[in-house]
User: What shape does this take?
Amino acid sequence: MTPDNGGYMVAAYIVVAVVTVAYAVSLVWRVRKLK
Amino acid sequence: MSRRDKALRLARTGQIVTGVALLALAGIYVRALVFTPVERLQGPAQKIFYIHVPTAVIALMAFAVCGVLSIVYLGLRDQRLDRSAAASAEVGVAFSVAMLISGPLWGKPVWGTWWAWDARLTSTLFIFLLFVGYLIMRDSVVDPDQRARFSAVIGVMGLVLVPFIHVTVYLFRTLHPDPVLIKPSAPSMPGVMLVTLLSSFGVFMLLYIGFVLQRYALANLQELREEEMLRDS
Amino acid sequence: MRDYTRAVWAIIAKDATVEWRTKTAFLSAMVFAILVLSILFFARDPTAVSALDIAPGALWVTFTFAAMVGLNRAFLLERENNAMEGLLLTPVPRTAIFVGKMGGNLLFVALVELVSVPLFVLFYNVSLTERLPELMLVTAMATLAFVSVGTLLSAMVVRTRFAELMLPVLLLPFLIPPVVGAVQVTARILAGRPLSEMMGWLKLLAAFDIAFVVLSVLLFEATLDE
Assistant: This one.
């Protein structure tokens, strides 16, 4: 009855985590470059 | 404390806030994936809702903040307003990327189509493109005063544009109704799901703050570096 | 008020004269128009898609591309020999410079549109005669929309590194409401629908025009250095 679309969920959660962490890392790295 | 030290302190504060927010985000992930029930009609993919909606709302909010700061900048001409506006714009772009990828991943299983030209998605897409252009333009203007003025002009225009895009899509939609299959219902959400959504919203908000603090501090450091280079030349 | 209008006309006349001498921008825009109209006509399965289906879109893509060609050229003129500084030193009010530039751009695009429409009628075999005034109205409204924003953006962009790329990138989001509106109205006009059915779109175009013409004029000052 309940559709089996867990794959999409996993993909989306991974993407959002990757984007968020990547941006956080980029900020830290750019500050470090200017220290 | 020198300006440089102040900027570094601010960056450090931003990093701490971001760190806390990221840990909290991990908590949200666990709550959403494990402890929130699966929606019967839409299946597990519905859970994308808990991260897609907050990123979408906060992305648009970030751009609105940029727009408002731009208006104030044009009145007061304080460079700090420009740096804050730019910080909010860049963070908005980052959140938009998350939103624009999670959106189709939710749309495909639930609506049957990767992209639906609905008002919110379309507005965010075009505002995202505008602010990408905003960031590219900032990169190609060397003079800080000119950069600030040009950015503010785009920021203000972008702010005024949003309602127009909304109405455009709404007019298009009402005259060309889509065979939309399932519309996720927000108001009649059971308590457990609502709590997950609201806490997720709070965490992404905290993340926004942490990011903006860091980005603003970075802008201050960049300005200091530019001043140093000017002095040495 | 008198002086203001005269200043605006002077700027329009100046730009028109310069363009008339070389005609390059106008010719480029016309070549674009013919190319776009032809390509879009051929890029379909004629048994599945009628010319009337794609006609409105083809027309407006043509007009928009033509506008881009004109917009790029507008402030480029002032960039050479630092002509802009000279213009700013005159007692002409700043907003008049903008209105003059915008007027010149409108004239340019209107000319391209004027020449494109017969081509359009020819290629797509549409009958326009009774609906011409309405088509002119919607064309004027939409053109004003993207020329006003485009003139403001080109004033800034001409001083950056990738001007020809930056203008379309920044202008695109602002094209959505007017061009979508224009295409929707044009499609209905070509299909013989009465104007009363398109009031929503026309109001959108009118509101956009008012908002963005005023905004562009007000914001022009901020794009000037000093």
About this structure: DSSP finds eight helices and no strands in chain C. The helical segments of chain C are 2-22, 24-42, 51-79, 83-89, 94-124, 132-157, 163-190, 199-223.
